Amino acid sequence: MVVECILWYTSSDVGLVAFFVFHSGKLFMRPESDTAFLKKFRGKSGFTLLELLIVIAIIAIIAAVAFVSLDPLTRFRDARDSRRWADVAGLASAIKIDQVDNRGRYLNAIQAMTTGSVYMIGTATSGCDDQNAFCDTDVANDTACVNLTGLVNEGYLAQVPTSPNGDGTWTSGVTGYTLMTSTTGALFVRSCESENTTEIFIGR
């Protein structure tokens, strides 16, 4: 395929208009009045509008197929679930290490929890169960929140994690992660939301 490009050049000093033509790897320059030179290239065919539209349509179809096959929505959900798993594991580890370092005693905020009840991890003191519609396991009641900033103060956590937003909206007040202790001393850390997997939780 031969690609030709005609460029207009205007010299204000001499008032000359000339054509620069790239053809077969060579550069030609002719004055505007050289009609014979123009006729030489006038019959050359280029892309038609129909051909350009066909190429654009093919590119659009390929892009659409690639978009569907990659399924970005599912990938985003998987990424959020992966972060939730990591956060839950980090919380469970920090709580248990703190317990071991304190001779089997949990953080005071955890010690004060009612065993068997699910608490929202966060700094809120009310509205703890407001997002139960988005939780796989319901928070016990309106005031069932547990503040784990003590783990940050003692160096067991860099910060109390907040779940990435899915259907629910999570903040430091209600983080989207819950905690429950059992009568045997075991604990269960859960993510309220799970999008592309079953419930996200760790029991230790």
From TrEMBL:
Organism whose genome encodes this protein = Candidatus Magasanikbacteria bacterium RIFCSPHIGHO2_02_FULL_51_14
- Keywords on this record? Membrane, Transmembrane, Transmembrane helix
Transmembrane portions of the chain: 6-28, 49-70
Keyword hit for Membrane: yes
Record carries keyword Oxidoreductase: no
Instruction: List the protein's name.
Output: Type II secretion system protein GspG C-terminal domain-containing protein
InterPro entries reported for this sequence:
N_methyl_site, Pilin-like
